[in-house]
C-alpha cells in the first residue's frame, strides 16, 4: 500500500508562487498516472492537474491552465505542482492521488476522482488578496 504526503503549502499573496510536493512511500510511483485535486471551503473536491505515467501527457483544469505545472521525478518517487500567478480563488486544501492500475495506456478521464485509489492528507494553500 502506498502512502502519499503533500508538502509546500502555505500563505502567499495574490500573484505569488508556491511549489507543492507529493512524496510517496510503500510503493513506487513509476508506471502510475498521478493527479492533483483541491477542495475549497464549502465546496467539493475538484480536479486541478494530472500526468500520464510516462510523463508525456499533462492535463489541467481550465481554471489553472497556463499558471500551474505538474511534473514528476520517479527516481525520487515524488510528484510536484508548480503554482504561479496565484489568485485568492486558488485557496484550498490540495491533494495528490495515484491512479488505479499500473502502465495503463490512458485513463477514462484524468479528472475523475474514481480513477484514483490512493490519496494524501492534503496541504493547505491560502492566497491573500
Overview of the molecule:
With 129 residues, the chain is mainly β. The chain is built from no helices and eleven strands. Strands 2, 4, 5, 6, 9, 10 and 11 form a seven-stranded mixed β-sheet that branches. A four-stranded antiparallel β-sheet has the order 1-3-8-7, with no helix packed on it. Strand 5 (45-51) and strand 6 form a beta hairpin. It is globular. The termini are far apart.
Supply the key terms:
single chain, 129 residues, mainly beta, 7-stranded mixed sheet, globular
Set down the secondary structure blueprint.
Blueprint: E1 3-7, E2 10-13, E3 18-25, E4 34-39, E5 45-51, E6 58-60, E7 68-73, E8 78-83, E9 92-99, E10 116-119, E11 123-128
Parallel strand pairs: 2-11
Antiparallel strand pairs: 1-3, 3-8, 4-5, 4-9, 5-6, 7-8, 9-10, 9-11
Amino acid at each position: 500500500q502506498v502512502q502519499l504526503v503533500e508538502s509546500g503549502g502555505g500563505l502567499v499573496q495574490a500573484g505569488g508562487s508556491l511549489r507543492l510536493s507529493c512524496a510517496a512511500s510503500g510503493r513506487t510511483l513509476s508506471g502510475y498516472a498521478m493527479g492533483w485535486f483541491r477542495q475549497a471551503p464549502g465546496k467539493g473536491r475538484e480536479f486541478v492537474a494530472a500526468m500520464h505515467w510516462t510523463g508525456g501527457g499533462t492535463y489541467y483544469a481550465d481554471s489553472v491552465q497556463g499558471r500551474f505545472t505538474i511534473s514528476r521525478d520517479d527516481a525520487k518517487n515524488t510528484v510536484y505542482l508548480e503554482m504561479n500567478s496565484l489568485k485568492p480563488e486558488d485557496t484550498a486544501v490540495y491533494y495528490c492521488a495515484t491512479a488505479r492500475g499500473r502502465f495503463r495506456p490512458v485513463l477514462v478521464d484524468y479528472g475523475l476522482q474514481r480513477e484514483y485509489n490512493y490519496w494524501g492528507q492534503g496541504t493547505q494553500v491560502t492566497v491573500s488578496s
